[in-house]
Every structure is written in structure tokens, then in C-alpha cells.
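Page 42, continued from yesterday. The earlier attempt failed because a stray header line got pasted into the input along with the sequence. Redoing it now with the clean sequence only.
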Amino acid sequence: MTITSQEINYLVMRYLQESGFRNTAFTFSYESLLHETAERINGADVPPGALISVIQKGLQYLELEANLNASGSEVEGEFALLASHELLTKDIDDLKDLVRQRREEEAERRVREVKRQRSDAAERNGPVPMEEDGAGPPMVIAEDSVAVLNGHQSEVFICAWSPASSLLASGSGDSTARIWTLPSGPVGERGGAKAASCTDPVVLRHVNDMQDKSKSKDVTTLDWNGDGSLLATGSYDGQARIWGTDGELKNTLVKHTGPIFSLKWNKAGDMLLSGSVDKTAIIWDAHTGEVKQQFEFHQAPTLDVDWKNNDTFATCSTDKMIYVCRLGEKKPIKTFAGHEDEVNAIKWDPSGTLLASCSDDHTAKIWNVNQDKCVHDLRDHLKEIYTIKFSPTGPGTANPNRPLMLASASFDASIKLWDVERGSCIYSLGQHKDPVYSVSFSPSGEYLASGSFDSCLHIWSAKDGSLVRTYRGKGGIFEVCWNKDGDKVAACFSDNRVIVLDFAMNAATQQISNPTA
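This time it went through. C-alpha cells are written below.
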């Protein structure tokens, strides 16, 4: 049996993707020419954690070989466990010597243990730990309240609800985006016949029979325009596309020379902004598909873009920099420097006054265009912060009397809710077990949904930080989002599925837990 270098590269790419290094995974795939492989590996056939599994099995084989007798026919004596760093750094002869030494040490230890077994038994057993107060069972979302949308043939990276209707868009590594029509009432089994439309989406194919299928066209990002009449998609092939809700391709936007990581409509709906691995950002005329201006300020891939208003926007990059730019200006109108590692995401607050950013340096920061240094430096996370979201509250929103908050999601498996005015952490939400990829506030700002690679979708109360709903899927979650009415949450998974769940709160709702503020 042999394994090719491209197969190893694919496993490395999947490992990076599953570990939360999504941008690095795309870049590695691009530079290792995985997209030019004659026959692309079907991601659906490769189980999560495949690289770790292969490495573990290889180390286990090496460990077994070190424990065999001279003839290699059987294990002599007790099986000696070896540490991973020993298996990785020593040759087989050194490992056999180590096994022999461990067996001798184990024999001596057992003699000593028998001598003191009776005297220290009580000390070894110790007291029984007490249960924590308030740790009740989670309020699990019932399966009959969940609609499972099948159809994608690879990981689903992104999903977004139309701002004007019950349409849900999803983008996948299978070179398609899909537009699903959800019933207005309950989904899942409780939705009855009305849920049937969920199984017949409009499929937006980013490759056809006449095109070179060896070039990857994974759909990496998508965004609806303000009235929900058009959907823009960004692809790994460097092209942006504009679609009608009926699946008609309105425009193909060709200028970028690398994968597009971020794509946003401006509020007026007449321009589209894109950020790419080619280090640039482009403003497109949404009607003609022409380039209005290309911005070439970053020294490394552009990871995220976000509009401040109809002609001003911000960009961030792996070069650690953030630029605020304006259409027609040849230089940035503001530069923010302060992060010590790549900046993963940026987001303007609802009023367009403050800009939040998050980075692999474990920090999130809040900036004001009238200042050079950050207003707040948020440092409570222990690992990389993947994404941030402002609450739809405060001045300039439909919820002006609620305070403005910022949510940050990290690879340390936690979510932090921040008081934007004071720059202090209000709640630390710690029920996830693996990196958190996505957070999304409900339209009212009362609830926060989170999705993690532990397969769990949690819904939290933004008021008191309690966990009020939870759902466990069968794969890691890349994205979560609320519909416009706040009664449905969608999530997309690494097992090729999209799920939609019903959400409704009432007086009888019980909270699951209260995290430490």
C-alpha cells in the first residue's frame, strides 16, 4: 500500500480546516496545487480527524513493533506504552531499549507498591468530589423541531438567511451554493407537508460540464443584498458571482487572482466589496459587473472586509494590519496597527462609529476612526479569536434602548460577551468543548447562537449569560445565523448538512446554567 504526496497534502488541509485554521487551509490547498489534482478527493468519503487517525495508527504500529520479541512473533511480558514524542524522535532500536528499561522499572515499582499498598490505600482513594450546584441537564432541542437539509456533497462552509424572506442560502466545498425555501411555520416533523420544499433547493453551480473541473470552485463566502433579491457568492477560483433567487446567474466578476475570503454588499445595494488571497480588495459595480476600484495596500492575504457606509469600508489581513478605505481615494484614510498576529475578522458597529477586530494574538480590539490607538484592548481569551459580532442594539438600531455588546468566539472553546462602552467582559460562556467558529445575535439582541466543532449549537441569553437551548449535530459547525423574525436558527456542518431549528421562548423556559461573569 502506498499513499501519494497529494493525498497527504489533502489530509493536512483537512486537519487545518477542522482545527479552525480555515484561511490557512485554503492557502495551503492553493499553494500545494490540490485544486489541480486530476481526480479530487471526495471530502464526504474522508471522516473527520483523518490525519490524526492515520498518524495515531502509524505510531501504534511503531509502538507494537518496539514491544515485539526478537523474532517479531509475539509480545514478551507486559505491553509498554510509549509517549508520542518518543515514537516521533527515536528509531526502532532505541525504542526497543526503552521498552526493556520500562519493563524493568515497572517490575521494581510493583515490588515497592505491594509493600506500601495497605498503608497508603486511604490516601490514594481520597474524598469523593461534590457535585456543583445548578448543573442541571441541558434543554435539548427536540429532533421534531429540526429540519435537516441534505444535498451538498462536501463540507458546508457558510449559510445566510435572506433579509426579506424565508430563503436560506448555503455554500459548500462541492462547488455549489443552494437556496432553500423554508416554511413560514414550524420546521422538521412538526412542519408536516410544508417542510417538503426544504428538500428541493435552487442549485447554483460554480462549475459546468464545459469547464475545467480540476480547478477548485469551493464556495467560500456569500451575502444577500438588502432587499433579498440578489445573492453574491465568492469562490476559491477567485471569481465572485451574482445570482437571482431563481438561480439565474446575473454577473460573473473576474479580477482577483486568488480565492475570495470575504464578500459584502453595501447598504444601497449598488456596489459589492470583495477581499482575496491576492492581497487586494475590490469594489464592483453590482449592475455592470465592472471594477470601480482595486485597493492594493496589504502585504499578505486579505481575510475580511466590511462596509462602514455606502462608500467607505475596512479591510484586515494576515499582515496584522487594518485599513479604512474610501472609494475614489488612492490611499487608506486610516490605518490601525496594534495586533501582533494575523487579523481574522473585522466588524463595524451598527452606527458605523466603532470598528472591532480579532486576531490570532488572542485579543479583540475596538477602534475609533478619530483615534490612532485602540479604544479597548480585550484580552480575556487564551487562544486565537476567529470571529466577532456586534449586537443589533444601541443607537442606530431597532433596539436603541438596549446596550451595545460585542461577542467574540475563540479556539479556546469560549465565547465572551463584552460591554462595548466600558471594554469589560460581561459574561464568559464556556459550555463548548472545541473551537467556536461562529456566533450570531438574534434580531432583537436578546439571544446569541454559537456553533463549534464539538458539533453543538448553543443558544444563550444575552441578558444574563445563561444557556437556554442546545442541539448536537453530527459534524463540526462552520456557521450559525438567525432568520429575520428571530424564530429560526440555521447551522451548516462539516458532514455536508445544513440544519434549521425552531426557536421560541416562553415563561416556562428554564435556564441551563449561569456562567461566571
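Notes: Residues 63 and 81 are 7 Å apart (CA to CA).
Reminder to self: strip header lines before submitting.
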